[in-house]
Amino acid sequence: MQHHATTDKLMRDLRVVVGDAEDLLKATASQTGEQVQEVRAKAEKSLRGARARLQELSASARDQARELNDQVHEHPWSAVGVAAGVGVIVGFLLARK
After folding, report:
1. For residue 61, which of 11, 2, 18, 14 has the smallest C-alpha distance?
2. Does the global pTM surpass 0.85?
3. Could you read off the pLDDT tens digit of each residue along the chain, which spans 97 residues?
């Protein structure tokens, strides 16, 4: 579950960065000059790539969650057994400290 929380945070952070980059591009739209145009073009390209990657990550996360949900529904006792086993291992490791 830690991996899921980390992925969710990364996706939220990436959405914030994309939003900030879009705002920056809008704010500098009236700026002229060759160097500004080059930087804007590079930023727009990076932003398109980030948006595409974010969409891929979102789709992948949905697919993985759906697959895990299906597996748990198909094999509920296996899921309970795995969770219990992980709990025993974590308890054992915590007790050793």
Report:
1. 11
2. no
3. 556 667 777 778 788 888 888 888 888 878 778 877 788 788 888 888 887 887 887 788 788 888 888 887 888 888 788 888 888 888 888 887 6
